[in-house]
Amino acid sequence: xxxxxxxxxxxGFIGSHVVRLFVTKYPxxxxxxxxxxxxxxxxxxxxxxxxxxxxxxEKADITDAAGIKAVFDKHCPxxxxxxxxxxxxxxxxxxxxxFIMTNIVGTVTLLNAARACWDNALEGKRFYHVSTDExxxxxxxxxxxxxxxxxxxxxxxxxxxxxxxxxxxAYHHTFGLPVTLSNCSNNYGPNHFPEKLIPLSINNIKNNxxxxxxGKGENxxxxxxxLDHARAIDTIFHHGRNGETYNIGGNNEWTNIDLIRLLCRxxxxxxxxxxxxxxxxxxxxKDRAGHDLRYAIDSTKxxxxxxxxxxxxxxEGLEKTVDWYLANEKWLENVVNGGYQQYYQKQYGNN
Length: 351
Ligand code: NAD
Ligand code: TYD
What we know:
Blueprint: E1 3-8, H1 13-25, E2 29-35, E3 55-59, H2 65-75, E4 79-82, H3 89-94, H4 96-118, E5 126-132, H5 156-175, E6 179-184, E7 186-188, H6 197-206, E8 211-214, E9 220-225, H7 226-239, E10 245-248, E11 253-255, H8 256-270, E12 282-285, H9 300-306, H10 314-327, H11 329-336, H12 339-348
Parallel strand pairs: 1-2, 1-4, 2-3, 4-5, 5-6, 6-10, 7-9, 8-12
Antiparallel strand pairs: 9-11
Helix pairs in contact: 1-7, 2-4, 4-5, 6-8, 8-10
The structure holds nicotinamide-adenine-dinucleotide and thymidine-5'-diphosphate.
């Protein structure tokens, strides 16, 4: 094999698309998926590629230094693409400590393992940290986040990701560890866990349940199709400059209410319901504590330097996403069984 790459969080939403892209595009790379399989980790996401000869799965917790050292000793990776994280803002509000442990302590555990494994033979090595635009805080009506925007995280989730970004840069500056970072806007697409706005709404519309919109639905997010994020990660991993950060975004801003209205129209069409049926399910609920108003990414650096750009229009991507959920009822059923019901009851009560 030409290279061995550890991908952490490969059983999650974005990680599974990154694993699939690398396993299929680079048959000469050994891809080692390291995942603890929390509620968000699901090996079903990889059922189509898990028998490929260049794919391996290691169940491990990134906060467990001995377990992670054993994985690094066994596989001696040339690169690490680090996606494992606690990723849902609402859960970070009800249980911040989990986020501190996984997102901060887990990242340092991986940095230490990479340092120890690579020692001073750093040629050709790369630690790629996958992060979020939420580290930059919240925008007003104008402006965009660039790579130079000052960090201003405002939720326990974004604060834990910001902290991990700082630590990755600190290991680069202090120890010379070769790193790249990227900060991406909101992703959507197949395999998205239905605690997040789009898949939760698809699931509720399908089951004729209320669609909970926080506050007045005026918050704005910049949505990117998950495969476009995976392609950006591939580009940055191979061609990004050592020590650099790249912002990734869709240039695709939507208020939550406009997005959900569009989704309702698509679902009415796909489910052969009369136009306007699903919109009746929209229910305004109590706002999220500290709810960031607007995120919007300026991805000029990535586009100019490395030639990446988003490939899909939002309407097209959203339709593909709905089609995937309607064609994969079993996946959805398995995911919403068990713990999901308790989470939903706690978060939304009887809505
Ligand atoms: P996800 O919640 O769907 O998946 C996270 C994965 O990490 C799961 O497979 C889970 O089992 C694994 N994991 C969690 N804790 C672990 C631990 N202690 N040890 C090992 N594995 C563990 O997350 P996602 O939405 O796919 O996000 C992936 C990464 O991308 C995260 O770092 C997130 O911050 C970042 N990101 C996400 C978005 C988005 O819109 N979802 C946007 C920008 C950046
Ligand atoms: P989410 O998918 O949780 O992503 P993030 O908080 O990381 O941006 O939420 C996207 C937007 O949708 C955000 O403004 C919060 C809002 N939202 C709702 O209005 N209702 C919901 O049930 C959820 C989960 C989110």
